[in-house]
Amino acid sequence: IRAGKAATHDKQMSHAMQRVFEGATHGRALLADKEGVSCADCEALQHPAVIASDWIGFICLFGSSFILVFKLMSFKGPDQDDKYYMGYREKNMISVFVNLFAAIAYWAKLASHANGDVGPAANVVTYKYLDYMATCPLLTADLLWALNLPYKFTYAGFVLVCILCAFMATTCPAPAKFMWFGMGFTLFMYTWYNILMLVKFRLDQMTTKSVKKVRFYLKIACTTYFAIWIGYPTLWVLFEAGIIDPVTSHLMHVLFDVIAKSVYGFALLFFVVGGEKHDFVFLELRPTVEKEYDSEEEDDRKGEDRVIIGSKKAKQIAQSKTRNEDDGYSAYNTNFQGNMFNTNVQQAESNGDMKNTAAEILQLNAQLENIMAKEKDLEQQTRKQ
Fold first, then answer.
1. Which pTM was predicted?
2. Which tens digit of pLDDT belongs to each residue from 108-125?
3. What are the backbone angles phi and psi of residue 28, rounded to the nearest 5°?
């Protein structure tokens, strides 16, 4: 009798467990259909490679955010005497939050895996695109800010709209998904190309020896930014065409995330720190459109004291001015303090008194340098006290 009761009890428990399992599977399928995610995608979430890649992505991104914040906060300025140097230049801290926000998104995915990817937490697509909506505009603003390029918030806003279109293309069924993808990809290519042209203008201006020492890190950052970002819509097309499966798509997204955020963050960190050490100053790009001038107009413009960055015509004028200047005036013109008296020198040249005026200016420059040196020594003594 006892054996019969025990067998009956085990059988009932087995049926109950089977009903629970079927209910969970059915609930997951209903959730997947409701949110536009296929059953194959839900099953792929529990794949060992997917879980392992999410752990790797979390460790890389979370670790990168801590290393970046430590490096930036420990930087004490060009003279190593300012403890809160980056605290008053917080725009250089954007890469920290890019990696931190991405790490939080991967932590949410790991929490979903721990729950068996059942329930609302199974919608990993939502976590992924919440990450992109926060980090991609920040990456864009960070790059444009580091090089002092125009349209920082405009292009960051365009990137946000592109990510929103990508989210709709991923969650909506056909043909709506293709409509959203077409709109997002068109805006993405427009934004991507315009940012590329702006960065190219700035890179063409970085020709001095001190700039070339750190320009290598900027090129790495730009390569990861422009090359990896093209990979995301490519993955979407390959997945929708059935060329890659959900697991492969997930692994590639993790790889792209780590490269586009961690590698980019460290490359831009070295460039920013190097620029601060050498006291780089990026002026505005003006004009961005070339104009044709007659030879007489160009001769008149050669005498004008202008700072025109990003213009081929300005470069030609500067080279022509350098060839025509004598040695004394060239030495004067390369001095920062001498630029303050540029107008006076031009007037003296027209009156035939350039040599006397240049001698007076050099004497004034020597006096200014002595005064600045005394002020710097006094400031250092005050800090030591």
1. 0.64
2. 999 888 888 766 656 777
3. -65, -40
